[in-house]
Amino acid sequence: MIPVSSSTLDSNKAISSVPVDTDWQTQMAKSFRTPKDLLHYLNIDEKKLPYKVDHDNAFRLRVSQHFADLINPSDAFDPILLQVLPRIEEMQVADQYGANPLHENDFSPVPGLIHKYANRVLLITHQACAVHCRYCFRRHFPYQNQRVTDDTLKQSINYIASNPAIEEVILSGGDPLSLNDEQLGSLLERLDRISQIRTIRLHSRTPTIIPARITESLLAKLRTLSKKIVLVLHINHTNEISDSLRQQLRRLRACNVHLLNQAVLLHQINDSADTQVRLCQTLFDLDVLPYYLHCLDPVQGAHHFEVDEARAQSIWQEMQSKLSGYLLPRLVREIPYKTSKTWINNANDTERY
Question: Which range of residues forms the domain containing residue 233?
Fold first, then answer.
């Protein structure tokens, strides 16, 4: 099947009848790791693409069969395909785009722990992720220097417990759901025992990429925790929401897990108010509250995804006219050394969150 240039971002059909393994770890292991393999699976003729594919990118392609099956192979500009396929544009050098856009290492008192905001800390729980999003702000992150070991995890737990101002722990990565159930369960239990912690928040793209990751044993563990559990999903487009993801989200809500979503505003993928409104409404139908709409972090290799700030504000303001306030995500930018995210819904607005 030959992809065609298309501006239609919302038409999408699963293209494969190949059964997907039900074990999430097997699915992770069998992820596509090269553009050649992915394009062959999708029956896409690379020569017909209106852009050049980068086969030698150091930030390797990684995408599950489940996520690949959501790609429309007839559309060269399919919003999922563009998020996962390395293109030659990633080699462009752009001013103010660098390997360390957020300077997170400057806020790391313990390897694997980032304490940037006063009342919350972030734990880099695992370096692996179920998908390599081409705009990932941690694509150059020095995981080798921030690797979580038994010793550094003990240091992190002690650091958190000895700082009474810390009320929330955010598990990130990579992706915290790359840990197996035993490892993740043990970490959650240790955090649950820290008296001043009120909320444990997990940021994960994995349920969208491999819905089978939401296992019965994980759900059972979540039911035992005394803290508020928040799962922040990362869904950029309604085409990413499969029937199996819908089922898993219902199971999570039944365990009293609070579901939020953050999206990144990306050129040619979701940079229209109609696409964003549809996403917010679909999420809310699934009891997922739209949380953040991020402007792109200026990471080297992602400049071609940029939506300039004025256009982002225009999109957000149009969304505001079409959505109830509680369905409207905050349009934000992460600015290094700021003590919170910067809300940029309006050029004259200095309100901070």
Answer: 104-343
Residue 135, token pair as written in the block = 């705009």
Asked whether 80 and 44 are in contact (CB, 8 A), the reply is no
pLDDT higher than 70, residue 116: yes
Instruction: Tell me how far apart the alpha carbons of residues 44 and 32 are, in angstroms, rounded to a whole number.
Output: 15
pLDDT in tens, 266-315: 999 999 999 999 999 999 999 999 999 999 988 889 999 999 999 999 99
Beta carbons within 10 angstroms of residue 154's beta carbon: 12
pTM of the model: 0.90
The whole-angstrom separation of Cα 255 and Cα 128 is 26
For residue 3, tell me if it sits in a domain. Answer: no
Q: Measured between alpha carbons, how far is 99 from 180 in angstroms, rounded to an integer?
A: 29
Domain co-membership, 134 together with 177 = yes
Cβ 267 vs Cβ 305: under 8 Å? yes
In DSSP notation, 170-232 reads EEEES-GGGS-HHHHHHHHHHHHT-TT--EEEEEESHHHH-GGGS-HHHHHHHHH--SEEEEE
Are 116 and 86 in a shared domain?
no
Instruction: Note whether 86 and 118 are same-domain residues.
Output: no
**pLDDT confidence of residue 16:** 46
What does the block give as tokens for 87?
Answer: 């293109």
Q: Please indicate, yes or no, if residue 12 is contained in any of the structural domains.
A: no
Q: Does a structural domain hold residue 14? A: no
Considering Cα of 306, then 310, then 312, then 315, what sign does the dihedral take?
negative
Average pLDDT over residues 156-168: 96
How many CB atoms lie under 10 A from the CB of residue 303? 19
Yes or no: say if 353 and 332 are a contact pair by the CB < 8 Å rule. Answer: yes
5 domain residue, yes or no? no
